[in-house]
Sequence to fold (155 residues):
Amino acid sequence: MTEANLDTKALLEKYLRDSHVLNLATAVNNRPSNRDVFYLTPDELTDYIYITTTRNSNKMAEIEANPFVAFTTVPTDEDNGVVTSNKAEIHLTDKSIDDVAELIENQIPNWMDVAGEAKDSFVVLKLSFSSVKIFGDQGISSLLLNEEGAAQEAL
Fold:
C-alpha cells in the first residue's frame, strides 16, 4: 500500500469516527429518497458501518426493495471532513440494538436514553461500501477498498 493510501485510509477513519450522522439515499421505482440517520463505526475500521432504524419504517421498506444506496456523512467540525460513496449496499443484520449498545454508548451518547423503550423496535443494518471519496480541507481523495476493508489503490 502506498503512503498516499495510508494517509487516505487514516482520513477515512478520522472522518467516520468524528461524525456519526450521514445522509442515506435510497431509490425504488425511480423515486429517490434521502434522510439523515445515525451510524456506528465498528471498533476496527473495515468496509462497513452500522445504521439503526425502526423495523417498520419507510426507509426499511425501501432498503428491502433495493439495497443499493448512496451516502454522505455530515461534515466534521474540525476540518469539514466528509465521506461519500455511491457504491454502497445495505442489508438487515441479525444483530439487536443490545449487540451494538457499547458502540452506541461510546459514539452517540444519550441515544439509548432518548430512544427509551422504543429501542426494542429498532433493527441494525450493515452499510457496506467498496469505494469512497473523502473531502475536507485537505482536498479530495478517493479510496478503493477490498472485502476486508483494506485500501487497494487510490482512484
Remarks:
- The longest strand covers residues 82-92.
- Residues 151-155 have pLDDT under 50 and may be disordered.
- Helices lie at 3-17, 58-65, 101-107, 111-115.
- The beta strands are 21-28, 31-40, 48-54, 68-73, 82-92, 122-129, 131-136, 139-145, 151-153.
